[in-house]
Specification:
5-stranded mixed beta sheet; single chain; binds fe (ii) ion; 234 residues
């Protein structure tokens, strides 16, 4: 059998370091030993096989997972997943999770005084189509406080997990909204040293996907690896 095709490593500065002291949790999370490079053998560069439960069409509409509609500003988040050479990554699993419109997560660790929404769980998933495209319907998440430093507020964001063609290409990142005044103050955003790379985490308002009388459209293309890679969490 031929040797598997390996993946290129990222550009320096385009990804956040493991340790970024202004992002206080990174102090505890950062490895204290030198990292080992995972060898890229066949099992690393071939794809995951999903089991358990099927991905259903409604899994990508976070506004229809309960009896009523969630409160908040309805939005459509869509884009394409691309590989390091700009080619679409088809049929790959995209998962998202987010706070509700009031900035509250359904999680026992989130007890700040904002209401839960009985009509919003905040999790969705879908497989990209043949052109690498994906589309979620959801509500715009609110900002929330997070005690990283005095008066710390996270900008509105949606968490994304992407598998790409294999386990080694899994990407976990956050999508931000254009014009959010909290972005320049956010240590997680600022952990990406290269500002041009960091800006790839900000979605673009898109009139083409905005639906009259229904929802605002935001475009977020994600590049899994290489020179134009979307910054990911380590
Ligand atoms: Fe979050």
């Amino acid at each position: 059998m031929a040797d598997p095709i390996s993946y290129n490593r990222e550009e320096k500065g385009a990804q956040p370091p493991n340790l970024f002291p202004p992002y206080v949790s990174s102090i505890k999370r950062a490895p204290q030993q030198r990292l080992l490079l995972v060898p890229q053998t066949l099992s690393e560069v071939t794809g995951p096989v999903y089991g358990h439960s099927k991905v259903l069409p409604d899994d990508s509409d976070l506004t229809r997972q309960h009896q009523g509609a969630p409160l908040g500003e309805r939005i459509i988040v869509s884009g394409r997943v691309l590989d390091e050479n700009g080619r679409p990554v088809p049929h790959t699993l995209v998962e998202i999770w987010q706070a509700n419109a009031a900035g509250r997560y359904i999680h026992h660790g989130d007890q700040h005084p904002a209401p839960l929404d009985p009509n919003f769980t905040g999790a969705g998933r879908m497989l990209t189509d043949a052109e690498g495209g994906y589309k979620f319907v959801t509500v715009k998440p609110g900002a929330y406080p997070w005690r990283n430093h005095p008066n710390a507020w996270r900008p509105a964001h949606i968490h994304f997990s992407l598998f790409g063609p294999s386990f080694l290409t899994r990407l976990v990142t956050q999508m931000y909204f254009p014009g959010d005044p909290l972005i320049p103050h956010d240590p997680i955003y600022n952990a990406v040293p290269d500002k041009k790379a960091a800006a790839r985490m900000i979605s673009r308002f898109n009139f083409d996907t905005t639906m009259p009388e229904w929802a605002l459209g935001f475009q977020f293309d994600i590049v899994l690896r290489g020179r134009n890679a979307t910054p990911m969490e380590q």
